[in-house]
Amino acid sequence: MPTTDSQPATTRARKGSYAAPALDKAFLIIELLASRPEGMLVSEMATALGRSLGELFRIVVVMEEARYLEKSPVDDRYRVTYKFLDIAYRATPARRLTAAALPEMQALALAIGQSCHLVVVQGGAGLVIAREENPGTRGFALRVGASIDIVASCSGKVLLAFAAPDAAARTIDRAEAMLGEPIDRAKLARELDRVRGQGYELRESPVTRGVTDVSYPVYGFGGELMAALTIPFLELIDASHAVGIDEARTLLAAATARIGQQLGHDPA
Predict the structure, then answer these.
(1) How far is residue 180's CA from residue 155's CA, in Å, rounded to a whole number?
(2) Looking at residue 123, what DSSP letter applies?
(3) From CA 61, how far away is CA 69, in angstroms rounded?
(4) Which residue has the higher pLDDT, 146 or 258?
(5) Contacts of 25 (CB under 8 A, 6+ apart)
(6) What digits encode the pLDDT tens for the residues 147-164?
(7) Domains of the chain, CATH where assigned
(8) Average pLDDT, whole number, for the chain?
């Protein structure tokens, strides 16, 4: 079925030097299901992608046999499996990064009574690749796999501020393309200068009332920026926090430094 400008971006065929229609359809299915954690029927995928049922059915079955998709025995809806996450961890620095970060994140969450999450750059956005929940009964946490606005979020500001300039520029270009509208680069540059000057970012959450985000960069060997470690500090009305936000920030800074040491970072 021909595509039109009114169709979602995921339904439009990719343009390149070589055509691989079946592979292209598989990628479209993955991208579609990534935004539908509840799963979809093959017929629903066909409608959403503007394809015929016959076009997609065999591809979905092959992906299921390869364990990239799984079908619910209850409603026959297909969902993406954790195999993608497993491959991503093994094929990228994420596995080593999370192995170094998780023990520190666990200790940090226990010490401050708050959750924390680890964010990396993924295209024009941030991606949560690990989290540690508040060990108490009340808290706020982002899920693993959540996509973060890299221009507006606390974690995103840290990832852009401490990245190599050319890498940051590419990320901003991709973010702008995803948004479909211009980014005020002069304003963003001023904000990133401020973050670099203080060495971290701390700001009230623009989304969740009562939460103040604080984020520090995590460096690897040779001073390469690897990730941002962030605490969404939830302020309780009865002030029964394990620590205040200033102490939480100090402990976060120490945790990111120790993670960096494990990754071969030499601050000197």
Answers:
(1) 21
(2) T
(3) 8
(4) 258
(5) 49, 51, 55, 56, 59
(6) 889 999 999 999 999 999
(7) 9-81 (1.10.10.10), 91-262 (3.30.450.40)
(8) 86
